[in-house]
Amino acid sequence: MWPPPQALLPWLDRIDALEIHTQIGREAQFSRLWAALAPHCDRLKLLAISCPDGGDLIAYLCHLWERLQPLPCPLVWQTDGRPMSGDLGMGATRAAVKLAQKVLAADLPGYVQLAGGTNDHTVSKLNALGLIAQPSRRSPSRTIAGVAYGSYARSAIAPLLKSLNETGADTALENSPELLWQAVTQARRLVGQLKGPLPGASHEGFSLGGGGAPVDTIKIDESRCL
């Protein structure tokens, strides 16, 4: 059983971003959650709403947008194409891209980020469809703002975590420099498809650089909080 929303309030003074997972038809539950959180969200830098597909998806997202007003920060619609899949195949990417296209076509306020079914095929598929903004070519009026790698990224570093556990040493990855750098390399390979080479990366110092302050995030599944 997850804690009630009130248990999260002390954290809201310490975080910059909030990610809420919801589903079509949960208007009442979302409203109760946001009513508890909204008075404490004035310092948020980003809010993400993650939702899988369904027949009334756009109407549901429109309802959420209205319920969130006034919102003190940018909003990201995280399109959960194939939730928690970690699938390596092109079919998973097609599901993720198709849902993103659906939300983009609705022209909702905010940004669109792919999730659920994202993998090594995702960026090439987005590029082929012109859904990633490119300075050198004409792109659709709406393009995706990001790609979230969840289950797929976890599966990519799972062998490293297994190796760490087998050593019998401290199980904190950051205390095993060689394994940590292998994990960072895996992450940079995914992120670099969208952002290009990351400046400031250093094997010796384990510094990714790139500028900007770190963003602390809390992820909430409203169906388990209420």
Note down, in words, how this protein is organized.
With 226 residues, this protein is of the alpha/beta class. The chain has one domain (5-155, 212-225): TIM Barrel. Helices cover 38% and strands 13% of the residues. It has 7 helices and 6 strands. It has helices at 27-37, 57-68, 90-106, 122-128, 151-167, 177-195, 222-225; strands at 17-21, 46-52, 75-80, 111-115, 146-147, 217-221. The longest helix is centred in the last third of the chain and has 19 residues, at 177-195. It is globular and about 50 Å long.
Q: What global shape is seen? A: globular
User: What's the total helix number?
Assistant: 7
Largest sheet, strands/sense/barrel: 6 strands, parallel
CATH topology: TIM Barrel
End-to-end C-alpha gap: 9 Å
Neighbour order of strands in the largest sheet: 5-4-3-2-1-6
Mean pLDDT: 80
Q: How many separate domains?
A: 1
Write down how many β-strands occur, each being a DSSP E stretch of 2 or more residues. Answer: 6
